[in-house]
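Thread: quick sanity check before group meeting

JM: Hey all, I'm pulling together slides for Thursday and realized we never actually wrote out the predicted structure for the chain we discussed last week. Dropping the sequence here so it's in one place. If anyone has concerns about the input, flag it before I start.
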Amino acid sequence: RVVHPPEGRSEPAGYVVANDADPKRAYMLVNQLRRMNNPAAFVTSCDGQYFPVLDSKSDRGTEREGSFDRVLADVPCSGDGTVRKNPGIWRQWNHLGSLALHPLQLSIALRGARLTKVGGYLVYSTCSMNPAENESVVAELLRLGEGSLVLADPRSRMDGLVARPGWKTWRVLRESKSRTRKAIKDQKKKRNAKMMAKKKEWDEKVERGEAPPPKERSDGDPDDKCDAVEPSPYDTDPYVAPSDWSYESLSERTKSLGFVEYASFEDVEDDWRKRVRRSLFPPTEEEAGRFELDKCLRCLPQDMDTGGFFVALLKKVGPLGKNATERMDSMAREMR
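JM (edit): ok, ran it. Output follows.
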């Protein structure tokens, strides 16, 4: 009905607006749409969290709020679900990237919820399997919505789809900067025989007074000191899966690999709270019962021989409250 005219009409009944933050991708989409020769498809290029709110001020906060019946927010993500077709992702992947993407993803999802009409649907999707980019964003969206958004379960309408339920709880971790792949690679370079010989030669010059002593660094995170990192017995090539999947065993493994685990937001160090945000943490038991995060879809690569995807279908049953709109505006300003 949207892109093809219904019977008895010369023009489509609706329209599609496709937005991409990358102008090159948007231009490529324009070329693809020319083949359809359809007047009901529009292409825009702007950052999703700044997509303009098109309804009038008098409609905001009322049942007339929103501009679109359906909104798909396919947000930027770490892409770890696509490693089967793109193994090179692991060369750049680190957990700090997911923490940095989380506020952007939430900001775009809030904007999508604001643009959705009351009674319409918002789809939030990523190609990541990390709860920091998935369930935590959906949970915060439902929390801020204060009842205006509810999760819907589309499984009954999608025959043949194999999708596992969303998670109701998870562990919040952060990766020490000194344990990223780049930091470990740099550390190995510093410790190879050639570099160690140069270091020894320089130290001897310093002792003889032929060279100035190295300056002590007073800035930076103590986690950045790569020299203090000891190799983990679990960092093996090829990878060896855990023999024990208990929480205690996995916790020991993650700590050995340089991860820091938090039980709650109150445990996060002050200088890390801009990265490890409160919205990353799982809902309380009472919230978990209301949010029904198990209605989210986790499509694992091995289930249908595909990539890995996360999808959440949310129905907007009422206008967004003041808390949600203020958070949306504040996050958009923060991203500038």
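AS: nice. The chain has ten helices and ten strands. The radius of gyration is 24 Å.
JM: adding both to the slides.
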